[in-house]
Amino acid sequence: MNLKNQFIVKALQSTALILLLILNGFVLNFILKFELFKEKKEFIDEICKSKLENLDFGFDNRYFEIQKNKLKKNQLLPEILSLQGISNSISNAAIANISQIHNIKNLRAGNTYAFIHSNTCQTPDYFAYEIDQTKFVLCELKKDACAEVIERESYSKEEIATGTIETSLWDALEKNGVSLNIIDQMEDALSSSVDFHHVQKGNSFKLIFDRLYIGSTPTSSGNLIAAQFSTDNNESYAYSFIHNGKQDFYDNEGRPMRKSFLKAPVRFSRISSPFSSNRFHPVLRFSRPHLGTDYAAPTGTPIMAVGAGIVESASYTGGNGKFVKIRHDKMYQTQYLHMSRFAAGINPGAHVAHGQIIGYVGSTGLASGPHVCFRFWKNGVQVDHRKLSFPSPDPLPKEILPEFFKHRDLLKLKLDEAQHTAYISSTHPEAL
Questions:
Q1: What would the mean pLDDT of 91-96 be, rounded to a whole number?
Q2: What is the mean pLDDT of the chain?
Q3: What is the DSSP string of 309-372?
Q4: Considering only 196-205, 331-340, 367-376, which range has the smallest mean pLDDT?
Q5: Cα separation of 39 and 30, whole Å?
Q6: In Å, how far are 143, 174, 238, 304 from 398, measured between CA atoms?
Q7: Rounded mean pLDDT of 21-40?
């Protein structure tokens, strides 16, 4: 190789080395900046989280004294302000300004109010009243006593709860952080396929739901997304899906979970007396057939029509007490006994919807305690409704099913991957 060619080769090698060093410099600089950005973001997130956790009615409780109380029955705002040493002029201005944005007649006993002090040796700087979880009234207690309604920062977070029944389903759900709101939605979603009044030890559940957070505090509000309930011989799935603008729950095949009849006319009570052809009557003190199912529940508990139909009777007899009888179609009738009162509009001839409240639990007639005796007729013969099997409604339209199946598969994968535990698998078990 001549001298000229050697020079060219070395020049190319040097150029390549320089380019490589420059490229390495860019890569190293990017990595360092990324790591620094990541660390900075984590640091900022931590600061923001800390600030959210310390904020109360918009004030950082590390720098302000925030005195909270619950509004008592018949307690009035002028009295509350006067006890804090607020002058009449400021008090009158505050009440007038608050009245323009919130009706002070709607101040509810049990709701939280607070006084915010920048200096506890002086009268408070602000008055706050919590309208609900999402907003509050804030009124300055100086000068013009300006008032405004402030919306709290809120967001939804997806959570998963899993559990195995050890004592009761209610305990397994409520004691481990699942709110009554989500419990009701779960029962609505699965009420036609699961008899919640007959759950057994070892039965298990998995729930996916959105929980609403106010700042960093979890609330009882949210929406059920999917549910699974497993018994010894059955596994039920329910998936929330929107079709034609309406949200409903569907099974694995895309059929609506809402079948012709609910499993029970009341929520989460216990069955105090099963269907029997020879039961000792606690009031009459002798044995006779009991062709119904008793659901014990507190007086006033809503009673639901287990299916759509027409009211045949809404009346009173000595034994049945106040009762409602409904004809659902040519084959089925149901009856609900011992009510304390009927729901509004429940009269003979009235049309009732599936799940509509028709009355309230009581102990009228021959009843030893508050309960509803539920009776079910098939072709004129009283039967044990828990042993009946009703046909499933038609599935979603064929053109919608591919979209639903894709949605179902994502949710089912989450449910199947969630591990059953004896407790709720939730980030915030302390939720309201």
A1: 92
A2: 80
A3: EEEEEEEEETTTEEEEEEE-SSSEEEEEEEEEEEPTT--TT-EE-TT-EEEEEB--SS-SSSEE
A4: 196-205
A5: 14
A6: 67, 39, 19, 33
A7: 60
d(CA 412, CA 405): 10
- Angstrom CA distances, 421 to 198, 304, 429, stand at 20, 33, 14
Distance separating alpha carbons of residues 249 and 68, to the nearest angstrom: 42
Read off the tokens for 21. 């060093």
- In sequence order, what are the residues at sequence separation of 6 or more whose Cβ sits closer than 8 angstroms to the Cβ of residue 214? 133, 134, 152, 153, 154
Q: Enter the tokens of residue 18.
A: 């320089």
Tokens of 363: 């102990």
Show the tokens assigned to 410: 């994502």
Token pair recorded at residue 12: 């190319």
> Which residue type sits at 331?
M
Cα–Cα distance measured from residue 5 to residue 75, given in angstroms and rounded to the nearest whole number: 100
Buried b (16+ CB within 10 A) or exposed e, 164-191: ebeeebbebbeebbbbebbbebbbbbbb
Give me 375's structure tokens.
């009776």
Q: How confident is the model at residue 424 (pLDDT cuts 50, 70, 90)?
A: very low
- Answer whether residue 332 shows pLDDT above 90: yes
Q: What are the CB-based long-range contacts (under 8 Å, 24+) for 417-422?
A: 418/160, 418/162, 418/206, 419/162, 420/162, 420/163, 420/164, 420/204, 420/206, 421/162, 421/163, 421/164, 422/163, 422/164, 422/166, 422/172
Residue 31 Ramachandran class (φ > 0 left, ψ -120 to 50 alpha, else beta): alpha
